[in-house]
From TrEMBL:
SIS domain span: 18-177
Keywords (A to Z) from UniProt: Isomerase
Organism from which the protein derives: Amycolatopsis xylanica
Name used for this protein in its record: D-sedoheptulose 7-phosphate isomerase
A Pfam family annotated for this UniProt entry: SIS_2
InterPro entries linked: GmhA/DiaA (IPR035461), SIS_dom (IPR001347), SIS_dom_sf (IPR046348), SIS_GmhA/DiaA_subfam (IPR050099)
Gene3D superfamilies, A to Z: Glucose-6-phosphate isomerase like protein, domain 1
Length: 183
């Protein structure tokens, strides 16, 4: 299982990189297949509408929230393209792609992350199991909840994306941490 304390450095690096992209005007583009599709929506709302008073709202969208777009793309281009197509149309190089996959082998999540990487976006993945194909895709940041039990992976992912949210805000609250010299 992903030991968040034992993975403090990779998590902090991902958060700092995300904070830099937000600081430069980027937005978070989140997506997942199946159960992680609702996690993607949860992550987006956390960033856009923080429940903690005084925390900064940051731009984020979930590519799973528009069922008409998802089914339209799936009908014409296939399910494997539902996220990659949206990224190519909606995203910019300054943005952040966060893909969520319980086993790391979701074809459409991998395709979305690869499209994001090709565009120059920061790529962050939350996976489970051994990380699957996504862990070997050459992405910027991959955080793996090392469990074969999808329920455990889901709980670790929820904790992880809340930590990501919190640490991005911590970086925003520290003067000078987002300056070019620190990056």
């Amino acid at each position: 299982m992903l030991d968040l304390a034992g993975q403090a450095e990779p998590v902090a690096r991902a958060c700092h990189a995300m904070a830099l992209r937000f600081h430069r005007g980027g937005k978070l583009v989140v997506f997942g297949n199946g159960g992680p599709s609702t996690d993607a929506q949860h992550v987006a709302v956390e960033f856009v509408h923080p429940v903690i008073v005084g925390k900064r709202a940051l731009p984020a969208i979930s590519l799973t929230a528009d069922i008409a777009t998802l089914t339209g793309i799936a009908n014409r281009a296939g399910l494997a393209e539902v996220f990659a197509h949206q990224i190519r149309i909606l995203a910019e190089p300054v943005d952040i792609a966060l893909g969520i996959s319980t086993d790391g082998n979701c074809e459409n999540v991998l395709a979305g992350l690869e499209a994001a990487s090709a565009l120059g976006m920061l790529t962050v993945a939350l996976t489970g199991g051994d990380g699957g194909l996504i862990a070997n895709a050459g992405l910027d940041h991959v955080l793996v909840a090392r469990s074969a039990d999808p329920r455990v992976v889901k709980e670790v992912h929820v904790t992880t994306y809340h930590v990501l949210w919190e640490l991005v805000h911590v970086f925003f609250e520290q003067p000078g941490v987002l300056s070019p010299e620190v990056a």
